[in-house]
């Protein structure tokens, strides 16, 4: 990736030494003792315990997870789980038993990126069918900074007759568990498991990719990310810059076909999320002769060449993400705004909402005054690539942003990185549509094609589009780019099958369009992919 492309695109890696220290801090001599007569016995030792993934397996996350293989039924070592959806921990018994309690312990170590699961669900099996006794939510928010443990448990004096027991644990980043324990009786019969709620079959049936014709795609087929507001010429777009992005320009200089139908404007990561920084960004975004104004002129020109009168390019504008704990924002309505939290606003939620409202008012006022004749504002983009549930007040803040966009009759879009927390819950968080970053090409020599397959499966599972990613135009970069496009086509995410966002670093496609030889291949390949031409590539 170019040094100037300031996007965070990755996941948390844990220090093995640090985790060992955390394990040592909590490990204790808590082995279950032989139960006296009349007391429930330890059923965990009677059956077989297995762990499975309810999600999309990923070899990189699996390799990280394998470093922490503790016995989940013991209190001596923690078992670590990294991303990949939920974990299903099952105890299969040799014969039915009356289960009276199920419990598991979880660790939270905020600085290490280890968080309590949001909840733990308890399920029981009898005669081949599963039933749920419900979930226990975490008693502490994931924003809790103390290093601590808590036990998730279910119990019933009468018990449930079951031949197998399992817990279902969501894993957003890292979850560490130990002490999985099931107690009950083999000498008595509990209430039938069928008295509980049946577990719905195909609860997570894949939704399929976000279709370009889906109502929540808002007509977005191919959306190019354009970063502005910093980095000199790399962050400044002219009419001449936009023309080859709107229409395919062949090697003879002729515009022959439409290219990107949507442009997403977002600030470079170096743009400060302060009132002064964002005011400067907006001034630059709406300045005559560049950025939005240049795009408007370029659309008019391409419309003439392609004989498409009245066509309007779709535009998506960004909403800044104000992180909890950030330094002072500025002054709104005569009052200082800062995000560090206070006794009257402990999560800095009111402060962040005030700043977001101020920004949206400025943004839409500037847009309405501009009267761009060739542009159509179709949505707003949440400029944060993960859901930071570990931050105080985060869920309420994202919901507010969604409602703020809706109050202006605009959808809110999201492009999380691969493995980011919140992907499975993007609709519940309030987003109208989402595209997943595969983060494949940027891995260079470490890239593996299974990542593209997994990204496509994840997108299909949750009804998302996919981001196409270009990080260089060398021979090696092109081979990986070809592989990613070929994989998308092979797995039903080709042109007209799915909506795509395109990340190309800092004007890489523009550089390619103005080049010859090998350096131009990326531009031509992109145009072919958008046109629906079958691509074959691999590395």
Structure notes:
This protein has 539 residues and is α/β, with parallel strands linked by helices. It has helices spanning 16-26, 59-65, 239-246, 275-285, 291-306, 349-370, 394-407, 426-429, 450-462, 475-490, 508-513, 521-531; strands at 41-42, 48-54, 79-82, 85-108, 119-126, 129-137, 148-171, 174-185, 191-192, 197-198, 222-228, 247-249, 255-258, 262-267, 313-319, 330-332, 335-337, 375-382, 412-414, 433-436, 465-469, 500-503. The radius of gyration is 26 Å and the shape is globular.
Helices, by number, come to: 12
Percent in helix: 25-40%
Major sheet summary line: 10 strands, mixed
Average predicted local confidence, pLDDT = 90
Shape field: globular
Notable traits:
539 residues; 22 strands; alpha/beta; disordered N terminus; ten-stranded mixed sheet; eight-stranded parallel beta barrel; globular
Short structural summary:
The protein is α/β, with parallel strands linked by helices. It has helices spanning 16-26, 59-65, 239-246, 275-285, 291-306, 349-370, 394-407, 426-429, 450-462, 475-490, 508-513, 521-531, and strands at residues 41-42, 48-54, 79-82, 85-108, 119-126, 129-137, 148-171, 174-185, 191-192, 197-198, 222-228, 247-249, 255-258, 262-267, 313-319, 330-332, 335-337, 375-382, 412-414, 433-436, 465-469, 500-503. Helix content is 26%, strand content 28%.
Topology:
Layout: H1 16-26, E1 41-42, E2 48-54, H2 59-65, E3 79-82, E4 85-108, E5 119-126, E6 129-137, E7 148-171, E8 174-185, E9 191-192, E10 197-198, E11 222-228, H3 239-246, E12 247-249, E13 255-258, E14 262-267, H4 275-285, H5 291-306, E15 313-319, E16 330-332, E17 335-337, H6 349-370, E18 375-382, H7 394-407, E19 412-414, H8 426-429, E20 433-436, H9 450-462, E21 465-469, H10 475-490, E22 500-503, H11 508-513, H12 521-531
Parallel strand pairs: 7-9, 11-14, 11-22, 14-15, 15-18, 18-19, 19-20, 20-21, 21-22
Antiparallel strand pairs: 1-8, 2-4, 3-8, 4-7, 4-8, 5-6, 5-7, 6-10, 12-13, 16-17
Helix pairs in contact: 3-5, 4-6, 6-7, 10-12
